[in-house]
Fold each of these.
Amino acid sequence: MRILFCILSTLLVAITTSAQGLNLGVVVPTETTSGVDSNAFRLLSTRLERMITNQGATSINSGNNVLFPVINFISDDMIEGGMRNIYSVNFELTVKAVSLNSNTTFGSITWELKGKGYSKSEAVKEGFAKLSTNDPRFASFFTEIRPKIENYYVRNRSALIAQAKALATQKQYEEAMSLLYEYPAGISGYTEVQSVLSGIYKQYQNANCSQILQEARAKFAIQDYEAASALITDIDATSSCASEAKNLSNQIRQKINSDQAAERAQELEERRISASVEKERIKAVSNIVSSYYKSRPRVTYNTIVVRRW
């Protein structure tokens, strides 16, 4: 019996990690599917996420490149006896690396697992627990798929940029940024992509300057000057909010002056804020893209229907 993780979008969750600029998610059901409950699937997602982390990854937001697990039950037996029945399962776990946008498969890896428990779900969970997060086979698999994903982006860079610019022209800024956000760092064309992404982010800021100013004032009120500065830095001088942004920027400087009497301390603080602006900008783009993914309709990969949460 083969289980595809599967049909209702309400059953799925994506956990994404980034390894050296490579975004890779894990998609698993969040509700009981064919007798296997969410606790078992949660353990599986944790195991797979840790495997990626052990390849140098850090957890970030949902994305288009995901690990998608499929179970194939070889045997599924119930042994009667004593106070409770014992379930014994023997199954294959195949994990595919796929692009949800293009239906591209980058590779797959399969484990043969066994487990026992007082329910089918417990038995499967025991099988998942036997996965080593330091499995050398997974390390080899990751090494194999990484250049394939990177090459995919390099080959499609011009098309991605053109599509993102077209979307930005139509004021679909979030979708435009999501196309470019996952372009892996360190590969050919990365600087060009980041330049385009930064330009689209500026357009987004100008189109939403009132809301951004409100957020910046909230950051300023709690003395988070780095975040406040990052929010208003890219508001264009021709924007309708440019004057208000400039006033807030002056308030930040004045606040630093009043809070730090020593001139040297003020200089160091301003440098610290300046150095943090780019970091905060990247964080802002990440939040925008993550919110966009969560708002998207279901995405179909063959017979698989998924939605990021």
Amino acid sequence: MGILQGCTIGFWRQEQHFDDWVPTGFAPNDDFDTVFGRDAFDPNITLLQALELGGGGLNNLARQAVAALLSAAHPDVAYPLTVAQVISMFQAAFDSGVFEPTALQFDEFNNLGCPL
């Protein structure tokens, strides 16, 4: 598979990188709960709002999951997971109520180095 890559939360949430969202098929204003298939936030938040969340627990999982999703979806990023795997892993963590192991895995992958 070659050298694996991933882009961080900080990369994806910066306005100057919003053009890098385009090839992913996702947009900053997409609804988080719709994309990830779980009613995680009430009121609903966007993917960009998830990237801007502070704190640990579900907020950290959501932040890391969005960065993972965008990295996995971008054609020029050799991310170790597919979009379907990222969504499935988020759903499993959300359903179990155990957020940190998955958030840490996403964080590790998101810090592999961004080619964009």
